[in-house]
Design a protein that fits this description.
The chain is an alpha/beta fold and about 350 residues long. It has helices at about 40-50, 85-100, 105-115, 125-135, 150-155, 165-180, 190-195, 200-210, 210-225, 255-270, 290-300, 330, and strands spanning about 5-15, 15-20, 25-30, 55, 65-70, 70-75, 80, 135-140, 230-235, 240-245, 245-250, 275-280, 305-310, 325, 330-335. The strands form four sheets. Strands 6-5-1-2-15 form a five-stranded antiparallel β-sheet. Strands 8-12-13-3-14 form a five-stranded parallel β-sheet, with helices on both faces. It is globular and about 60 Å long. This is AAA+ ATPase domain-containing protein. One of its GO terms (molecular function) is ATP hydrolysis activity. It comes from Aeromonas veronii.
Length: about 350
């Protein structure tokens, strides 16, 4: 497939450099040292395209220009770059600290920080971009966000779920189950509790979607085989994980296994629509061999997906993807040069 995003330009990143990145490949791996802006670039793309509830730190960048499906869109950044969950938690934490602070210097510091952070409510999204992007699906996944979980989200899941990773995986599994049963507006539990639930109907629908599910399960199990684990999805849409023929719980998987399952479940949930997949350091918690096979796995599951990865790990490129690497040094220019 032709790349959906073909060029990214960011003006005054961190107030001293510009980014100009021409993208001409289906798979793009952004490589660079810590602090060079890899993750910031991905978060900016996500916030602008998905119109996410983001906060913008004015020091991060002034504006971003995206070339999407032959169209050019320019977005001024008037405010900034924390994912919505992190930003809400940060503001709540600062307000709580302010109410209990006694030292005037501490109070002033907190007030200055709160003043610096502003919700970008006045930034109107380009309607033409909205219309264009409605034809695609844009997914952003950051391993760092998996450590953050709001109390409301935590309280909404069952007692055997302990981490944000577990929560996100269960959410993706529920979406996939609904998709397999062609009832995507309902969760797996709602489907099974429904009086309309009919095992034969469900089985028939499942079989019609079997090809994609088969590729997905075979791909997951190619990673799991060394540990004796195996993923099964039965005709009722149930996800079952076994180890040496014994059923085990999702929360017994290692962090790397959970991370892999989340990524690949997110990918299969995009099948059927052209997709831009933004992955921020997906290699965290993954064994070296798994890192090497990750891109192959994603492209096998979804063949209409443009993948943009920010990483520190050259292992991700080792299975024939070396020509997809982009060094931050080669797309970064001093603001005075441009």
């Amino acid at each position: 497939m032709q790349p959906i995003i073909s060029r990214i330009r960011i003006n005054s990143l961190f107030n001293y450099k510009d980014i100009d990145w021409n993208i001409n490949k289906r798979v793009n791996v952004l490589f660079g040292a810590n602090g060079t802006g890899k993750s910031t670039i991905l978060r900016l793309i996500n916030c602008v395209i998905n119109d996410s509830d983001c906060l913008y730190d004015k020091r991060k960048a002034k504006n971003i220009t995206l070339h999407v499906a032959g169209e050019v869109f320019h977005h001024n950044l008037s405010g900034t770059l924390l994912d919505s969950r992190s930003s809400r938690m940060l503001i709540d934490t600062l307000k709580n600290e302010l109410s209990s602070a006694e030292d005037d210097k501490i109070k002033k510091s907190i007030l200055d920080t709160l003043e610096l952070i502003g919700v970008a409510q006045n930034a109107k999204k380009d309607p033409n971009l909205s219309n264009l992007i409605s034809k695609f699906r844009v997914e952003y996944l950051s391993t760092f966000d998996m450590t953050i979980m709001s109390k409301q989200e935590y309280d909404s899941v069952s007692d055997d779920v302990y981490t944000q990773l577990d929560f996100e995986i269960k959410k993706e599994i529920s979406i996939l189950t609904g998709k397999m049963l062609s009832l995507g507006h309902k969760s797996a539990e709602e489907i099974k509790d429904s009086k309309m639930f009919n095992r034969k109907v469900v089985s028939d629908v499942f079989q019609s979607n079997f090809k994609d599910v088969k590729v997905f399960t075979e791909t997951v199990n190619s990673f799991f085989k060394d540990s004796g684990k195996e993923l099964h999805i039965d005709p009722d849409g149930d996800f079952i994980i076994k180890q040496h023929d014994e059923v085990i719980g999702l929360n017994t998987l290692s962090s790397g296994e959970k991370q892999l399952l989340l990524i690949l479940t997110r990918v299969i949930n995009c099948v059927g629509k052209d997709t831009i997949l933004l992955l921020d350091e997906p290699e965290i918690s993954l064994h070296l061999k798994w890192q090497e096979n990750l891109i192959d796995a994603m492209t096998k599951i979804h063949d209409r997906c443009q993948i943009i990865i920010a990483t520190h790990s050259p292992a991700i490129l080792m299975q024939g993807w070396m020509d997809c690497i982009v060094d931050m040094k080669n797309i970064t220019f001093s603001t005075s040069e441009k």
